[in-house]
Amino acid sequence: MSIGHTLLGLLEGGPRHGYDLKRAFDERFGHDRPLHYGQVYSTMSRLLKNGLVEVDGIEHGGGPERKRYAITDAGITDVEHWLTEPEKPEPYLQSVLYTKVVIALLTGRDAADLLDVQRAEHLRLMRELTQRKRDGDLSDQLICDHALFHLEADLRWLELTAARLGQLAKAVRS
Amino acid sequence: MTPAGSLLIATSLNKTYGHTPALDGADFSIHPGEVVAVMGPSGSGKSTLLHCLAGIVRPDSGTVQYNGRELTAMSDSERSGLRRGEFGFVFQFGQLVPELSCVENVALPLRLNGAKRKEAEARAESWMERLEVADVAHKRPGEVSGGQGQRVAVARSLVTSPRVLFADEPTGALDSLNGERVMELLTEAARESRTAVVLVTHEARVAAYSDREVVVRDGKARDMAGVR
Amino acid sequence: MSGQDAPAQEPRARVSVARWAADLAMGARFAVTGGRESWARTIMTAVGVGLGVVLLLVASSVPTAYQQRNERGDARATLSYASKVKAGPDTLHLSDANTDFRDREIAGIVMAPDGDGSPPSPPGVDRLPAAGEMWVSPALKKLLDSGDGKLLRDRFPYRTAGVIGDSGLSGPNDLSYYAGISPKAFDHVNSDYHLAQWGIQKKGEGEPLNPALLLLIIVGCVVLLLPVLIFIATATRFGGERRDRRLAALRLVGADTHMTRRIAAGESLFGALLGLAVGTGLFLLVRVFIEGVVVWDISFFASDIVPAAPLALAIAVAVPASAVMVTLLALRGIAIEPLGVVRNARPKRRRLWWRLLLPLLGIALLAPLAGGFQATSGGSDTKAYQAAAGAVLLLVGVTALLPWVIEAVVERFGGKGSVPWQLATRRLQLSSGTASRAVSGITVAVAGALALQMLFASVQARDSHSTGQDPRRAQMMANVPVSTGAEARDAFERYRATKGVREMLGVTEGYVSALHHSKDDPSTAPEASLTVADCPSLREVAHIRSCKDGDSFFIDAPPDYYAAGEKFAKPGAQVNLAFDDEGMPDLRHKKLWTIPASIKVVKSRVDPIGSERTGVLATPGAFDVAKLARPHAVAMIRTDPKVPDATEYVRNTSAALSPAMDVMRLSSTAQSDEFTVIRKALFIGATATLLLIGASMIVTTLEQLRERKRLLSVLVAFGTRRTTLSWSVLWQTAVPVVLGLALSIAGGLALGTLLLKMVGQPLAVDWSGLGAMTGIGGGVILLVTLVSLPPLWRMMRPEGLRTE
To answer: Domain extents for chain C?
Structure first.
């Protein structure tokens, strides 16, 4: 999952300190794996280098210096691109997809659209696998079936999420 | 979105049952030989879309064009005739006439069209062979397995060589192995005879047999081919 | 060991009784609480059973009703078996004074006390009517008071003094009266008698029933009641398939097979009990209604219609019991599993032998009775039982054959033919049982009705003999006793002047006697008749070529008319004209007259009422009517067909001439109305049965359709025409009904032939009855189809596809 895109997405709401970013990330996505501050620092410096964020201001205090980051136009485009581009369908995507949905909701983008695009992508792959299964031998079929069942599970999750978008939007924005 | 060369085109269909809107401005189109999956959560209006497309139900507003003819303007008997001759149907369950033998069930659409019994049953048997159920030809539907029964139903839906096959959850009552076999045989047979298939399903693995999918949500149909 | 077991078993038995009760109660609850559909089912069953129960209760009331009626009838009888009553101080002088008003008979008695004593008053009347008074039955009073009765009022020159009480009536619609007349009025009465006591005392059992009639009654009961029983059985199975599915749901939550059976039994028991209640209620209504019904001039008081206690008890027990039995039997063929109802996929082939055995046994019982029920042979009890058993076996056997026949025939169809035909026959192949059950009632009803019709038709043919009357020559004939020729002339004049009389021929008849006593019976003398009339009238009674006033004619009596040597009336012979008060020849005060020697001998001609005359015919110029003792004026009347109620005017004139109103209407055949009515009743009964069966077929068909709502929608989806399915419903009904009718016609003809043999009548097929039955059968097929069509079309709407 792309921590960079996620942090960028969080910044879309307004400039934040690195520490704030970490806290916001952990709150929403880091239930079992909170970010290390170092991860935030290195990610932010990479984003800074790529021109996706800029430093909005530095706060001097007792501890380490605290930079405030703001997203650039290039950064917004990058988030946009990330959200609209469907993930390559593969198992265990839900954490990425979940993050994307939340970011989309937070940034006021169309989360349903995101899900639809992803679902089309899933189905495209499922079609391919189904075709391969048809032409292949038993071992091909079994391998394809395994993938198909996993993809189906994801797809069901997509549908379920789509059906609950309204609920989720309320929860995220509160 | 009404691409040229479409066999069946529906535009802004509206249909309300009582106070429940089932379709709310749905669009749809299908080319000859195309397999289109209609997906969506239950109650979204998938089946209603299928019923409108097949001329079983007249939409409250909107038009359905089949082969350049306005389906919505036809009389009941004209539409019935169309369904007998040019359309085929497979449903989830309860579609075989229990007292007729399987081969008689398959021959039924041909006979409704006025074919002679012998001819009809000969053609029915050849279709049953293609769907690998020739061995149950003379059994009654109650005496065959669910998968066999569904394949008999598919054979029946294809026996008239329809231009459009409407399949409403054709594998809904089957386990995955049987369901897939039915889908394989169905799509294979349909592609060979360039029959367009409108496949209503809520199962992704069934929809994966289609060329493209349309998602119905809140009475609106969204063509996923145009999403990207 | 058994000693130890016994106490342990007792509580178990009690537990199982409690279980039974609980399960039955549960079933009863399902009958009511299962929502609209189970209510509908329960009501259908209750109404069906109720209709059957009404019929049974009415049938069981017939013996009581007849007994009550006959008892009252006996109480007012005027003729006893005892020897002739002589006039005395306490006797009544009376005469029947029956008359008709349009189609209805009015029974009347005119009376006068013979002396100064206290003669008994008739039942239902508290005192004897004085001369010029009459007591009328309530129905007659109503008729007299109505606008229609105006014409009738003129017939009774009496003041209405009171209304006859119920004890003096056999039924509420009796038309009867008792009138008092002056003793002198009896002079104008043909037939009078004296009475010391009203009513007859029954000696022992009374007359034995005519054996043929007994046979009719036995077979009639079987024929009418068997379909009712079958209908009740069908009614308790209404909605059975739906119930089976509910029971399956119960199995899913843990009920065992026995429990489901008991629950089902409880459900139908409840329906049957409700039906019993409905039936009893309807019966009470019908009872009141019956009072207003007059069939065949017979009516009953509601209080007469009381079911015989043992029969009522039998109904109360048998109906619920048979409902439970039928349900349990029906459940035998299916297994109710938790996940649904499993019908035995391939039901056992129906066996032929016992089905064939029943009718054969019936024939074997009936055949030896050939000739056994002729009027001459007394019907013994064993014979009656044998006949009843034979008829029941034959009819039940034919019904039992039906499922086999339907199965055997339907199996041969083999899916050929058009789509509707294929759908219908395949359906019948799969469940021919349902079809044959519905039709089995038809078989009994039609077979029985047909057999009875054959029997009636033959009895009727025998009984509606030619009367010899010729209604083209005269439509009415009156016979009025007159004292003088002038009176006779007067009577004729009055008839001639009556409204609606087109022509009248009058003859005055009297008797002459020989001058010596009879050799066989010295108390009297041989008599011959003397008829005086004008030429046109004489031509009606004799073949006369030329006639003018002053002529007389002689018709020779057939050789066996007189005892040897007593033929005294011949041309030129002297005869005696004097008769005493008792009407006997008076040889002490002879009045002599000589038959003219020139009298022309002629041949007699059958007169309009069919009788032939002998003796002397004289024109008024040849014989003075006034010289005849105790003459009768016989008027042959031609009425004007254009005048409505001409007959009634003539009757009124007769009433003015004689209190006995001796006037009759002529017809060429004596139509025995009774048989016409029985045939009509039979026809109505058979129609009602067929309609009942039609109703249950409609219910079954609708149930079947509702069950396949989804399939119907699917069939519509792939473009099935309405007509295709409509025809299939028609065939589905027609095939079993046609087979049932064919079988019942065969059975009916067989039974009819046997019955005719028993009463010794030649074989005659009642084609019209047969045609009528076939027609009704066809009507039932159409009716069932027509009633099923609207729901069928409603169910053929695509909405049925949305039910997932």
So the answer is: 1-77+210-345, 92-195, 409-464+671-804, 476-665
Place C3 in a pLDDT band, splitting at 50, 70 and 90: very low
Distance from CA of C726 to the nearest CA of B (A): 14
Nearest chain A Cα distance for residue B116, angstroms: 37
Residue with tokens 């007169």: C607
The verdict on B80 touching C (C-beta cutoff 8 Å) is yes
Residue (of C707, C710, C726, C414) closest to B96 by Cα position: C710
Least confident window among B76-80, B194-198, C180-184: C180-184
Q: How far apart are CA C466 and CA C672, in angstroms?
A: 11
Predicted pLDDT at C372: 67
Among A62, A75, A61, smallest CA distance to A10 is for A75
Q: Do chains B and C touch (3 or more CB pairs under 8 A)?
A: yes
Q: In the structure, what pLDDT confidence band is assigned to residue B200 with cuts at 50, 70 and 90?
A: very high
**Which residues does chain B have within 8 Å of residue A113's beta carbon, measured at their own beta carbons?**
227
Range of the domain at B75: 8-223
- Least confident span in B59-68, C219-228, C710-719, C790-799: C219-228
pLDDT at residue C8 is higher than 50: no
Q: Chain B residue with minimal CA distance to A150?
A: B205
Chain B residues with beta carbon closer than 8 angstroms to that of A144: none
> In B31-170, which ranges are continuous DSSP H helix?
46-53, 76-85, 102-112, 117-130, 146-158
Query: Is residue C9 scored above 80 in pLDDT?
Result: no
What are the tokens at A160?
């379920």
Using the Cβ of B218 and the Cβ atoms of chain A, whether some distance falls under 8 Å is answered with: no
Window B:31-60, CB contacts with C under 8 Å: 47-48, 51, 54, 56-57
Residue with the bigger pLDDT between B48 and C569: it is B48
Beta strands in C589-739 (DSSP E): 592-594, 600-604, 615-618, 632-639, 663-665
- Tokens representing C409 are 């025939």
Residues present in chain B in total: 228
Q: Could you say which of B209, B215, B222 has the minimum Cβ distance to residue A130? A: B209
Hey, is the C-beta of A129 within 8 angstroms of any chain B C-beta? yes
ipTM exceeding 0.95, yes/no = no
- Interchain CB distance below 8 Å, C718 and B89: yes
List, for residues B51-79, the tens digit of each pLDDT value: 899 888 889 999 999 988 888 888 888 88
| Model pLDDT for residues B15-46, shown as the tens digit of each residue | 888 788 888 888 899 999 899 999 888 778 88
Does residue C386 register a pLDDT over 60?
yes
With respect to residue B228, please indicate whether it lies within any of the assigned structural domains. Answer: no
- Whether B103 is in a domain gets the answer yes
Q: What is the pLDDT of residue B103?
A: 92
Give whichever of C200-204, C605-609, C751-755 has the largest mean pLDDT. C751-755
φ, ψ (nearest 5 deg) of residue C615:
90, -155
Of B83, B97, B166, the CB nearest to C711: B97
Sequence-ordered list of residues with C-beta below 8 angstroms from that of C2, at least 6 positions apart, any chain:
none
Closest partner CB to C718 (pick from B83, B92, B117)? B83
Chains C and A touch (3+ CB pairs under 8 A): no
Over pLDDT 90: what percentage of chain C? 0
Q: What's the number of domains chain B is made of?
A: 1
Q: Looking at the partner chain, which of C430, C431, C719 has a beta carbon nearest the beta carbon of B83? A: C719
> What is the CATH number for B71?
3.40.50.300
Name the residue among C717, C719, C804 with its Cβ closest to that of B92. Answer: C804
CA angle at residue C363 from C361 to C368, to 5 degrees? 110
Record: contact B80-C716, CB cut-off 8 A:
yes
How many CA atoms lie within 13 Å of A158's alpha carbon, on the beta-carbon side? 33
Mutate to test the interface with B, among C339, C419, C718 (most CBs of B within 10 A): C718
More confident residue, B225 or B215: B215
